[in-house]
Amino acid sequence: MSRWCVAAVSGATCSGKTTIARRLHASLAGSRLISQDDYFLPESDPRHRLVPGLDHFNWDTLSALDMDRLLADVTALTATSPPGILILEGFLVLNDGRVRQRCDARVFVTLDRATCWQRRQRRVYEPPDVPGYFDACVWPMYEQHEAALRREAEAEVTFLDGRRPIDELCRLVEAEVDKARVSCGLEKAAPPGGGGD
Question: What is the pTM of this model?
Answer without folding.
Answer: 0.92
